Amino acid sequence: MAKRIYIIGAGAIGKALAVCLANAGKDAVLVRSSLDHQPDRLESIRLNMADGATLQADLAVKTFSSLSEPDGIFVVASKSFANDGVAEKLGELAINAPVVLLQNGLNIERPFLSNGFPNLYRCVLLATSQFEKADELRFRPVAASPVGVVNRDTAFNDLIVEQLHTNWFPFVREDHIYKMVWQKAIVNCVFNSVCPLLEIDNGVFHREAKAMKIAGRIIEECMLIADRSGISLQLEEIRNTLLSISCAADGQFISTLQDIRHHRPTEIGTLNLEVAAIARSLGLENKVIITSMLGELIALRSQLNQ
What we know:
The protein is of the alpha/beta class. It is built from eleven helices and eleven strands.
């Protein structure tokens, strides 16, 4: 039986997912993470795909206060810096339903673990989405986004992937999710620090050898911290992932640059700055100087632009 899918976060990714689900005949509802106690409403959203196809859907938009005994699947697609508040709101609803964190970054699950969520999943987002107008998005999936359990003692529920998956926004089961989490976090450390500082789109790495050389140094620093954290990664695999995203998202701007331009907080705290924090806990802060400094520059630029 199909379950209602509550997508927390009505941003570019949340809306893209909701449009894809609606076009596949699935019951998807957007839940705003930043506002509460607002009336329900309908939003008409258009999604422009890479092949020129267009998807459109009228989406129900709610706030937490209008969710009465909700049951189904909860997908957290809001910015990771909001996770403390989202975990608290979901905790107040006392739900026992699966919660899927559709976010990239390191240790983003901590607020949910602290609130005792028993059925928690992480999804590594392998897609980009960008507003072209208030009601229109440019969406580019790079590959199927892997989903895995946070607690290894939890049995994987394959129905979750089945419910979320569409041909436009694909998902796949992943039994070793934390390898994928680290791999994508490292790639995001590159995109979310280099691109905003250069004021350039995601395609710079497949176009410019010098940009790729800088990326390589960040990757090597982060791989060392991953290795000391028990995660073994392959340099070429990460480089290839970065280049494939750079090609697929050529012309699109990374979320951190979009956030800075719109005077919004960024997620750099769960990327470069979290790598630096983990490095400090391991006594290796001198091994991530470039990664850390770029993260601090982004944080400063964001602060000055608020």
